[in-house]
């Protein structure tokens, strides 16, 4: 166990000190601040276009454009970029070492390959978690600081839902957990592709290609895709939004979490299986 | 003599291509062992199999009497290695890189330990610089530091003098000899600079096309071989006229009139007779030297 902690510490140091890790943090901070500034200036006008449509049926009092709603909007926009930011680091965890040659030193140490893959996987999840925490702090607490808090108005395809201010925190907490699970699938998929490929870029591009293809497959309402659609991880990556339904569809969320977790287990198992048998020839 | 490494019928196939073909040899404990072969002969594949970077198709590898397949963990803690070019995490400093390697090897190093290691390889004072600012020679030295960090019993050095300046090559040679003679370490040394191999190795194996060509003690292997002897004479025309028609003429491999030099292919025990013959005929022998012994031998046995 001591050996595993030592390897994990190495992987965490490498992940945190790599220049490309900071790209993700920079992008999250930049997008959040740009959107917060834009919504601060034009948010009321934009929101009135939406609320005008529902004001005939309900009466709206108080500040709708508050920190909670801004956080909800930011999450919806950033959740598109987050898989790319995660894949940028995790897709390079093994293939990057293979292409740079450092894998030879890594594997000529006593620690076994399974331990190395597990340590890299945990380091990848740690980076994903850091990104989400940063997003959470800036999007939720930053927005509350700028816009204040209050009840949250969620408008979706089925109508509008009012979330009481007292309920917002725990809903965001669970939605961040589900988002973390979704991004963990992306991280594990990128790691899996990283074990197969020997250059740094292809696993990152391939991960994004798979996400795009699966998302398109999930969007088209074709009967022939009905069988596989529920099992595509991309179909469950937006389950975090279910936390803002009333009542919360608990069973649907649990099902999504199970499918996401199953993807992680299968992809991680496959990564270990392939890496254990891989010849390091370059 | 106890064996540090024993390879038995080691074979590696990549699809239809056989990179290493039933290769067997052993590295005596406490030796500096030369591992030679032309490019593409299967050297790197063999070394990678010894480090479990590549899985053999068939055959068996034993290090320190234990099977690599069964005892990989304990074996790896006894091996230090530089394989081909030294690669590091270039965004980290040399010291940070060494700390990663120390931690991965389960070592609890103090600043004093790192300082001693860095001094040993000549990098003291540059340890806080990022590796991306290092020259190739400095990376080689750092590679050597990571190979020695856990005080291994067996050291694999694959082309360690690539990129080193002449002083670096001499220092590396002295370090290898020190590690071997003073600390009793077994060293497997692979290099294309055959004069270096000849200078430090006591045993060697040569492989070609994945198969063993020759294995043995360097002194024994070379003592039976003809030498390339370069004789510088005072009067070239005179010397040639005396040599023509004699038994020595068949041994001449090259004549250079401008340099007054005649090259012979001779065994060592005929050197004195040749010298005596020329002196007896009144030819001034200005110099007689034999060189590139291993190089000639290597080219001969690899049909190159």
Description:
Chain A is elongated, with a radius of gyration of 21 Å. In chain A, 71% of the residues lie in helices and 4% in strands. With 282 residues, chain A is mainly alpha-helical. Chain A has one domain (2-277). With 304 residues, chain B is α/β, with parallel strands linked by helices. Chain B is 35% helix and 29% strand. Chain B has eleven helices and 14 strands. Chain B has helices at 43-50, 68-76, 94-104, 111-120, 136-148, 166-181, 194-200, 218-223, 236-243, 271-280, 293-301; strands spanning 3-14, 17-28, 32-36, 58-63, 66-67, 79-82, 154-158, 186-190, 203-208, 211-217, 227-233, 252-256, 261-266, 285-291. Chain B has a six-stranded mixed beta sheet, with helices on both faces. The chains are: A mainly alpha (282), B alpha/beta (304).
- β-strand percent of chain A reads under 5%
The best one-word shape of chain A is: elongated
Task: Please tell me the overall pLDDT of chain A.
Answer: 88
Within CATH, the superfamily of the largest domain in chain B carries the name P-loop containing nucleotide triphosphate hydrolases
Largest beta-sheet details of chain A:
2 strands, antiparallel
Proper CATH architecture of the largest domain in chain B: 3-Layer(aba) Sandwich
Broad structural category of chain B: alpha/beta
Our count of helices of chain A gives: 9
Main pleated-sheet profile of chain B: 6 strands, mixed
User: CA-to-CA gap between the ends of chain A?
Assistant: 30 Å
The percent range for helix content of chain B is: 25-40%
Quick one: which chains have the greatest interface? A-B, 27 and 32 residues
Question: Could you say how many structural domains of chain A there are in total?
Answer: 1
- Estimate the mean pLDDT confidence of chain B: 88
Q: What oligomeric state is this?
A: heterodimer
Task: Report low-confidence residues of chain B grouped into runs of 5 or more.
Answer: none
